[in-house]
Amino acid sequence: MTVTESSVWVDVCPLEAIVPERGVAALVDGAQVAVFRLRSDELLAIANCDPFSGAHVLSRGLVGSVGDRVTLASPIYKQRFDLRTGSCLDDDAVSVAVYEARIADGLVQLRAT
Predict the structure, then answer these.
(1) CATH number of the domain that 70 lies in?
(2) Angle at CA 9, nearest 5°, toward 101 and 31?
(3) pLDDT tens digits, 7-65
(4) 76: exposed, middle or buried (C-beta count within 10 Å: 0-12, 13-18, 19+)?
(5) Number of C-alpha atoms within 13 angstroms, CB side, residue 47?
(6) Is residue 51 part of a domain?
(7) Residue 58 — φ and ψ, nearest 5°?
(8) Rounded to an integer, what distance in angstroms lies between the CA atom of residue 72 and that of residue 36?
(9) Secondary structure percentages of the chain, helix, strand, coil, to 5
(10) Of 59, 94, 89, nearest in space to 75 by CA
(11) How far does CA 81 lie from the centroid of its chain?
(12) Would residue 3 count as lying in a domain?
């Protein structure tokens, strides 16, 4: 997703609706997005589609870390993705889209074009 001047913020859910270290799926501008809340309340969002299986399941993956990188392991074949960059740690040729997320007035919001 390319952020442009015409981008708008879309409400997803209240922050409290996302358990820390877990994800939720949201439909934003026609795209399925996986949104994760870290223990620090930082929000990270990536495309929900697992590029290896084609299933929209990344929101159900396992949050973890490799060094200082926050990662997500796909629930299907367990490939790991960097939640900040979308790059796959197990296959340099694969990545998923990353979305900008924020908290505004207690609501989780994603930037849509």
Answers:
(1) 2.102.10.10
(2) 75
(3) 799 999 999 999 999 999 999 999 999 999 999 999 999 999 999 999 999 999 999 99
(4) middle
(5) 17
(6) yes
(7) -60, -25
(8) 9
(9) 5, 50, 45
(10) 59
(11) 10
(12) no
Q: How many domains does the chain have?
A: 1
Q: How far apart are CA 83 and CA 39, in angstroms?
A: 14
Note if the pTM is more than 0.85: yes
Question: Which residues make Cβ contacts (< 8 Å) with residue 106, sequence separation at least 6?
Answer: 14, 15, 16
Strands annotated E in the chain? 8-14, 22-28, 31-37, 43-47, 62-66, 69-73, 80-82, 98-99, 101-104, 107-112
Dist. CA 59–CA 22, nearest whole Å: 8
Rounded Cα–Cα distance for residues 92 and 4 (Å): 27
Strand partners of residue 43:
37
- Which residue segment(s) compose the domain that 104 sits in? 8-112
